[in-house]
Design brief:
The complex is a heterodimer of chains A (257) and B (299). Helix content of chain A is 82%, strand content 0%. Chain A contains eleven helices and no strands. In chain A, α3 packs antiparallel against α7. The two termini of chain A are 28 Å apart. The longest helix of chain B has 34 residues. Chain B is built from 14 helices and four strands. In chain B, the strands form two sheets. Chain B has a two-stranded antiparallel ribbon. Chain B is 63% helix and 3% strand. With 299 residues, chain B is mainly alpha-helical. Classes of the chains: A mainly alpha (257), B mainly alpha (299). At the A-B interface, α11 of A face α1 of B.
Chain lengths: 257, 299
């Protein structure tokens, strides 16, 4: 219940943040622009709207995760409101979990709104409801999972670092996470054993973000197999749990005086 | 303690889950659109303008993509490569960094023969921007030689030999190409120099494979000459090539075969790739074995 209360409060705070509205508005604008420009695409409207729309959802969702996520804990520490909170019978782990789930809820609402807008845009582009619009939602769900993973990283960094550094680290991890397949390739083919071991370790430590990205196959009319969705969900749950556990470990040892 | 245990447990559990995900077949984008997606950027000059001083890094990035593109195209059947996007990828790398020598050399080795004018233009641009780099002129000479333009090839080798620090054998090579462009010995010389002077592993492998193919061609000529002699002397074709080799040992004709010729455990001659030569007793003819990589080598 305490976690839920903190989560709902975090959600309310996030919703009041102007950055959020600006980003969502920008995504909606981008989707509108994609609709206009796609008319010059010689029959590729659905593909362009899908590509551009989901990419915007992903990119701006990441921006939300970073901008809000890196300040989640840091702001409370800076303003000393964390001392007030923790003087209540609230465990530090409950505080962290509440903050995290609050931002998850924020991202869920935003992703749903942006995906709904994209569905309408596709309906307009194709002049009918088609299977692409239905297949959009599992892909959007996986993108939301990806954002949850990045949010967990942002929260982890914000528990011990400044917002600017936390944002930088999170972005770097996002980049590394997209190169996970290359890390695996190096781990399998490098001639030096040290490189192989390091790459293998890195491969399992950085988030494997390609597991969550099916924008290109969707744009080519393919759907995501349910077992991949299930696998990605299990992976995200385990990975996020590990990150949250680490965040709690660090936060419990922090001295706010 | 609970948090630490949860952290460890969850991290460990992600390993088998990720391994399972890696094994699952993923929805794939059709390969005929891979080229468009690989390129993404069509105007190289505009792209360079937007690189904001990171052009060296971006050149490295696109070089990496070029290698991945090449690798994805040549996986599997080595005789049916489609490298349509390769010139544009290389152009992008070189627009970002005109001193990217590896890109010029890679293009010289792997752009298909149908892109000869573009490859020549690529190398000439590289030579203009990197006049001290004699290896680019070596590559240009090789390119002309492959097209049987021996005069241009000789001119390129001669020009390379005039670059300070260039090895002396370049002028010898120029003379050989001018005089006997189509000669196997000249070809052997060219590929040997390419192999010795290239830092690119693909080019070295290609050169080594071509040297093996030339060696195999020499051995086949020798085997077929000996088959004719055998037929003339014995009145029939030998049942196998191993029998032919035995006959050369008995008759003192072993010296007619190359010292580098290898035999398998049955005494049958094998090509430099280790595959036994094919033999048709009815025609008294030895040839490349269709299973051998040397028979399938296109370049």
């Amino acid at each position: 219940m305490k976690v839920l209360a903190i989560a709902l409060n975090t959600f309310r705070e996030a919703v009041r943040d102007r950055v959020l509205y600006n980003l969502v508005a920008f995504v909606l604008l981008l989707i509108g622009a994609a609709l206009i420009f796609s008319q010059a695409s010689l029959g590729q409207e659905a593909r362009i709207v899908t590509d551009a729309g989901l990419s915007a959802v992903r990119l701006f969702g990441l921006a939300i995760a970073i901008f809000i996520g890196v300040g989640l804990v840091y702001k409370e520490i800076e303003k000393r409101t964390v001392l007030v909170l923790l003087s209540k019978p609230i465990r530090r782990s409950q505080f962290i979990l509440g903050k995290y789930f609050g931002l998850c809820l924020t991202l869920l609402v935003n992703t749903a709104v942006m995906t709904a807008a994209l569905t309408l845009a596709l309906w307009y582009a194709q002049s009918a409801f088609t299977s692409v619009q239905a297949r959009l939602w599992p892909v959007a769900y996986l993108l939301w999972l990806e954002l949850l993973v990045m949010t967990a990283w942002a929260l982890l960094f914000s528990s011990f670092s400044t917002p600017m550094l936390s944002a930088l680290f999170t972005v770097l991890l996002f980049i590394l996470g997209n190169w996970a397949a290359d890390l695996k390739l190096f781990a399998d083919t490098a001639s030096s054993w040290l490189t192989r071991v390091l790459c293998r370790v890195l491969y399992h430590v950085v988030p494997n973000l390609p597991d969550f990205n099916f924008i290109a196959p969707l744009a080519h009319g393919q759907s995501v197999p349910p077992k991949l969705i299930a696998g990605a969900t299990v992976y995200a749950a385990l990975y996020i749990s590990a990150l949250l556990a680490l965040t709690v470990l660090i936060f419990e040892r922090r001295n706010f005086k | 303690m609970k948090a630490a245990a949860l952290l460890l447990l969850c991290l460990i559990l992600t390993v088998p889950v990720q391994a399972w995900l890696d094994r699952q077949p993923k929805p794939r984008v059709p390969t005929n659109v891979l080229e468009d997606e690989t390129l993404y950027v069509k105007s190289t000059r505009t792209f360079k303008g937007f690189s904001l001083g990171f052009n060296a890094f971006l050149a490295d990035w696109y070089w990496f993509r070029t290698i991945q593109y090449f690798g994805s195209q040549v996986e599997g059947d080595s005789t049916n490569w489609r490298l349509d996007a390769l010139p544009e990828l290389l152009d992008l790398v070189l627009e970002l960094d005109p001193q990217y020598l590896a890109a010029y050399r890679f293009g010289a080795a792997f752009l298909p023969d149908t892109q000869y004018p573009q490859t020549v233009a690529l190398l000439e641009r590289g030579i203009r921007l990197n006049p001290a780099e004699w290896r680019l002129q070596l590559d240009l000479g090789y390119l002309h030689w492959r097209q049987k333009r021996f005069a241009e090839a000789a001119a390129a080798y001669q020009s390379a030999s005039r670059v300070p620090g260039a090895p002396a054998w370049l002028s010898v090579l120029a003379a050989s190409v001018a005089a006997q462009g189509d000669d196997r010995a000249t070809a052997r010389e060219i590929f040997t120099r390419l192999y010795e002077n290239s830092t690119d592993e693909y080019v070295r492998q290609l050169s080594q494979a071509r040297l093996q193919q030339l060696q195999a061609q020499t051995e086949l000529e020798q085997l077929n000459r000996l088959l004719t002699r055998y037929h003339d002397q014995v009145g029939a074709c030998p049942p196998t090539l191993a029998a032919l080799v035995q006959w050369t040992l008995r008759t003192g004709l072993r010296a007619e075969l190359s010292e580098e010729l290898h035999l398998d455990e049955h005494g049958a001659p094998v090509d430099p790739a280790g595959v036994a030569y094919a033999y048709e007793p009815g025609n008294c003819a030895a040839a490349f074995n269709a299973q051998s990589s040397l028979a399938r080598l296109k370049f």
